[in-house]
Design brief:
By secondary structure, the chain is mostly helical. It has helices at 12-24, 26-38, 41-51, 59-63, 66-75, 79-90, 101-112, 118-132, 136-148, 156-168. The termini are far apart.
Length: 172
């Protein structure tokens, strides 16, 4: 990448500067998505980290990569890259026809997986709710999944996300 080598460590200030630059440079923005979706290791993580710092006005650009980001989250062995991809997906508006069954299955399984990092599990809860909220039967399945998780085994952030989502799910 012309502006910075994404294979090198980035500071938070560099990430913010790249995000600001990408906001105004569509070629750089596409390079960041290409590095995220097709890169490996630090390059992919750094590019995704920059993308998470884009302003909300860039949401349509993120939405155009919804499927690729979902596939990345499901297939990467890198938990940091998975978390960053899920973070980008969680920023999107999910309409009834936006459900990605493979992502929803991943999220439902991730909620109860104690081997997943807490950040990934919390994002799985959020994304599962965003996709299920339009369908009562899916919302009920999400509720049952959340009730399977013993809150005493969760850290405070994950416990809060679980509780807030349970409150949001209508009970029949």
């Amino acid at each position: 990448m012309a502006t910075h080598n994404l294979t090198l460590p980035l500071s938070a200030a560099q990430v913010r500067a790249l995000a600001l630059q990408a906001q105004q440079d569509s070629q750089l923005l596409q390079q960041l998505f290409a590095a995220t979706l097709g890169g490996q290791g630090r390059e992919a993580r750094n590019a995704a980290w920059v993308l998470t710092h884009l302003p909300h006005a860039a949401t349509p650009s993120i939405a155009s990569h919804r499927e690729g980001l979902a596939t990345l989250a499901l297939t990467t062995a890198d938990s940091s890259l998975c978390r960053l991809a899920l973070n980008l997906l969680a920023r999107l508006h999910w309409h009834p026809d936006d459900i990605l069954p493979h992502l929803l299955d991943f999220c439902l399984a991730g909620i109860t997986n104690p081997h997943q990092p807490c950040g990934v599990r919390a994002l799985c809860i959020k994304l599962a709710w965003q996709q299920c909220r339009h369908y009562p039967e899916l919302a009920a399945e999400l509720r049952q999944t959340l009730l399977l998780v013993d809150p005493s085994t969760l850290n405070p952030g994950l416990k809060h996300t679980r509780a807030q989502t349970l409150k949001a799910i209508p009970t029949a």
